[in-house]
Design brief:
Number of strands: 6
Order of helices and strands: EHEEEEE
Helix content: under 10%
Strand order of the largest sheet: 1-5-6
Shape: elongated
Number of helices: 1
Strand content: 35-45%
Length: 81
């Protein structure tokens, strides 16, 4: 609307990329091998969010939710896509 309250032309329709979140449950070692996390100093961190996941080994397991391309969050309390 302009200063007089007259409506202007409608805006173009908005489109999205259609990204669908995904969930992955695996050991910290396997998350790193799959590119969902990285290890530094013997610890594991989720790609994107940098959330700590504990020791980099095959015995510690977490669920990671990919919320955007290359961005993962720890979702141990419930990982539904």
């Amino acid at each position: 609307m302009d200063a007089a309250g007259t409506a202007g032309a409608a805006a173009a329709a908005v489109t999205t990329t259609g990204f669908t979140p995904t969930c992955h449950t695996a050991s910290n070692y396997d998350h790193v091998a799959a590119g969902r996390a990285y290890q530094s100093g013997g610890n594991t961190y989720a790609n994107g969010s940098q959330q700590g996941m504990g020791l980099w080994n095959a015995f510690t397991t977490h669920a990671l939710k990919q919320t955007a391309p290359g961005y993962y969050i720890v979702a141990d309390s419930g990982c539904s896509a």
